[in-house]
Design brief:
It is an enzyme of class 3 (hydrolase). This is Bis(5'-nucleosyl)-tetraphosphatase [asymmetrical]. Its EC number is 3.6.1.17. It is a single chain. The chain has three helices and seven strands. It has 148 residues and is an alpha+beta fold. The chain has one domain: Nucleoside Triphosphate Pyrophosphohydrolase (Alpha-Beta Complex). Helix 2 packs antiparallel against helix 3.
């Protein structure tokens, strides 16, 4: 059976300079794992028994980044499923998109992560080594731009 995980791609909007497009002021939250290859990823984790996918995404975000559901706005109309093998087994990760209500809210990492960064799209794609995550971040950015 495929491993299933869920998470949130979290972004914040900084105050744009008058000459900037609003989308230039968007930053994405990535967490660096404290295990394995120390890769960078949005908060995500495995679905617990009796949980639905979205509950998992919010629980994992609280556990890994210290963010409560009440501090985030879930963005309607965006949901992405990624499929890839992990140690020879299929894995599905479902992501939703959420905006920080207050861009200055403190991030509190769990032991699973050693660092976090707020990154503009280009840098977020450099940190996210996996092509499907880079493509997802670009897709999210396009989605946000199309809503402006």
């Amino acid at each position: 059976m495929a491993v299933r995980a869920c998470g949130l791609i979290i972004y914040r909007r900084l105050q744009p300079a008058p000459s900037c497009k609003v989308t230039d002021s968007i930053e994405y939250l990535l967490l660096q794992t404290s295990y394995g290859t120390h890769h960078w990823t949005p908060p995500k984790g495995h679905v617990d028994p009796g949980e639905d996918d979205l509950q998992t995404a919010f629980r994992e975000t609280q556990e890994e980044a210290g963010l409560q559901a009440s501090q985030l706005t879930l963005i309607e109309g965006y949901k992405k499923e990624l499929h890839y093998p992990v140690r020879g087994k299929p894995k599905t990760v479902v992501y939703w998109l959420a905006e920080m209500k207050d861009c200055n809210t403190e991030i509190k990492l769990s032991e699973e992560h050693q660092a976090f960064q707020w990154l503009k799209l280009e840098d977020a794609c450099k940190f996210a080594e996996y092509e499907d995550m880079q493509a997802t971040l670009k897709e999210v950015h396009q989605f946000l731009c199309s809503r402006e």
